[in-house]
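Field reference: sequence -> structure
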Amino acid sequence: VQLVESGGGSVQPGGSLRLSCAASGFTFTSYVMRWYRRAPGKDPELVASITTAGGPFYADSVKGRFTISRDNAKNSVYLQMNSLKAEDTAVYYCKPEPGNYWGQGTQVTVSA
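Structure field:
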């Protein structure tokens, strides 16, 4: 299993980023895909999830600002992040569910 996250960076509050996750080594279409984030000194937090049929779930902290999507033809999952806040600063990871597989993550930093 390989998960490669990309698209992170540094933005000012109110800015936007689009994260991508390229997955391989498993039957992508059979798995729920999730985005987690881990801020320094904190436990990993579930940010968003998308079912095999495309049904989304969002944590309350990002609802209305983030959008998760998937492209089964490209074995990829995305996270569009708008109206970013300082508290969104973290390393973001995608993860298939079930399964304990993690990529290297992509750093998102939101600061003025």
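Note: The chain has no helices and ten strands.
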